[in-house]
Amino acid sequence: MARTNPAQFIQQVRGEVSKIVWPGRREVMLTTVMVFIMATITAIFFSLVDVGIRAGLNGIFDLF
């Protein structure tokens, strides 16, 4: 693999950074809200699963 000198490396890094498309404020806010909504839905789902498993195990243990 060919080695590049530091000046070429910096030039290549700048070229790659210029290709980045940064999201706008609206897109960032929308994505953030969607992440919070999905985290809330996931937390509720796993809480319900936990309650169901706990009730099932309590029912089984009550039989013994």
Automatic annotation (TrEMBL):
The encoding gene: secE
Membrane topology: Single-pass membrane protein
Family: Belongs to the SecE/SEC61-gamma family.
Assembly description: Component of the Sec protein translocase complex. Heterotrimer consisting of SecY, SecE and SecG subunits. The heterotrimers can form oligomers, although 1 heterotrimer is thought to be able to translocate proteins. Interacts with the ribosome. Interacts with SecDF, and other proteins may be involved. Interacts with SecA.
Biological processes annotated in GO: intracellular protein transmembrane transport; protein secretion; protein targeting; protein transport by the Sec complex
Subcellular location: Cell membrane; Membrane
Primary residence: membrane
Protein name as catalogued: Protein translocase subunit SecE
Ranges annotated as spanning the membrane: 28-49
Keyword set includes Protein transport: yes
InterPro entries: SecE_bac, SecE_sf, Translocase_SecE/Sec61-g
GO cellular component terms listed in the entry, alphabetical order: plasma membrane
One Pfam match: SecE
Organism: Litoreibacter albidus
PANTHER family recorded: PROTEIN TRANSLOCASE SUBUNIT SECE (PTHR33910:SF1)
Keywords (A to Z) from UniProt: Cell membrane, Membrane, Protein transport, Translocation, Transmembrane, Transmembrane helix, Transport
Single annotated GO MF: protein transmembrane transporter activity
Function: Essential subunit of the Sec protein translocation channel SecYEG. Clamps together the 2 halves of SecY. May contact the channel plug during translocation.
